[in-house]
Amino acid sequence: MRSSTAVPALLFVVILAHLDCPAGEADDRSLFNGTNLEGWETIEFGGSGEVKVLQGKLIISSGVELSGIRYTQPEKLPTTDYEVEIEARRSSGFDFFTALTFPVGDLKTCATFVVGGWGGGVVGISSINGLDASENNTTSYMHFDEGPWYAIRLRVTATRIEGWIKDQKVVDEDITDKEISLRSGQIDMCAPFGIATFQTTGEIRKCVIRRLP
Question: CA-CA to 194 of 20 to 30 Å: which in 14, 51, 97, 148?
Answer without folding.
Answer: 148
